[in-house]
Amino acid sequence: MFESFDRSRSRYASLGVVSSLPGELIDSIWLIIDLNLKGVIPLTNMLAFDVFNNNGRVTLRFSQEFSDVEMAVDLAYAYSTSFPERVFAFDDGTRETILLPTEISEHS
């Protein structure tokens, strides 16, 4: 058994994520995992992040299966209707990838 989301693993974002979210939002997801989640709550290998419009700015809401813990983080980045409603961070034990919901089966 491996510990999920170890920052020493290689980290990626899928082509779908890179083409639909700005790099600073992708980086924000990794920072939320490292600074706000890791070591605070037990993490599974699949984390969900909902992307919300909060008065023109982005709010990311974390959740995961089998847990009642949720957390929302307000960010200073402008929201766009072209952003996906949800992305997932997946850790396969070797590398970590941020994916769109339609890309999950390709990586799990």
UniProtKB/TrEMBL annotation:
The protein's name in its UniProt record: GTP cyclohydrolase
Organism, as annotated: Candidatus Enterococcus clewellii
Record InterPro entries: DUF960
